Predict the 3D structure of the following.
Amino acid sequence: MDYNKAALEMHETHKGKVGIVSKVEVATRDDLSTAYTPGVAEPCRKIKENPEDVYKYTFKGNMVAVVSNGTAVLGLGDIGPEAGLPVMEGKAVLFKEFGGVDAFPICIDAHDAAGVIAACKAIAPTFGGINLEDIKSPECFEIEETLERELDIPVFHDDQHGTAIVVTAALINALRVVGKKMEDVHIVLNGPGAAGTAIIKMLMTAGAKDIIAVDQFGTLYKGCNSAEAHKNWLGEMTNPRQIKGGLKEALEGADVFIGVSRPGILTTELCKTMNKDAIVFAMANPTPEIMPDEAKAGGVRVIATGRSDFPNQVNNVLCFPGLFKGALSVRARDINNEMKLAAAYAIADLITDADRSEENIIPGAFDPRVAEAVANAVAKAARETGVAKS
């Protein structure tokens, strides 16, 4: 099937993918007077008296803003807010279809962090949460950190943390398959941008102690003096043996390779230098860092990619619908590390001991159990860590 052609036809036929559907009927004068003036003034007065009643009388409690400035759209790069709109519409569809969460795409003309922050703060009263999407690094770090600190609704950059949560879930099960523990394995991550940095932080939260980050210039280590602040932080916090060099040096004896970088960077020969029962997550899209058959030829035991035509697809749709569903259900004011880790384990634990195998370490995108399991785990973690308001 030619998906490019089919997508163009679908988008043109429907004029996009989302619209507004009224929850109430307006067929009579009484209907009109209740939905709008004069009756609508009463919930306005109630909310004025008690701002928290906005969750009682409006859609805020189940509405997420999907916000992008179009600076890092899929693999297309900085294509602008208008060109990014089809992706944000698609994200809104996935929120609804997989998690029952209402979401609205908002593409803003703001290339700097300050502009995006100001726009999000201005629209925050309307929404119960904000999902940041397709915003380039390093601005995405400042944007998310500032909004998390200054808003009382959950803010989540899916390109960072959605990816990190699903990768962690998949790795939990991959390690179960090969009989290794998170705290014991040597992990190499290639491509420490927004997603890569978040993956490293999430794996550290999950107990990983030996991680090396590799960028286009080589390994990150103490004093590497990168031009990017987050890479200097990684140099300080990872690479405990201070290995210097490139991917070749980092991979010698490694148990796990995680790629969020570019096609073909990993070879069969490099895989042969890894430890026995190696795990490879090659997630560059649409062409991974190494194809599964090439990795297997190098002795890799478990391989995952971002593609649906291979086993073990790492797909963010396993995370964000349920995560926001859970956070909104308890009116969490934040999405903290405990909630993220709970989401990862909820996804991983859906694969039973009997079903887990080298080619089955993570649920499929259409598994109907995922969103509810994630939502319940996230809500529980929010309550236990004191960020839930209800």
Summary: The mean pLDDT is 96.
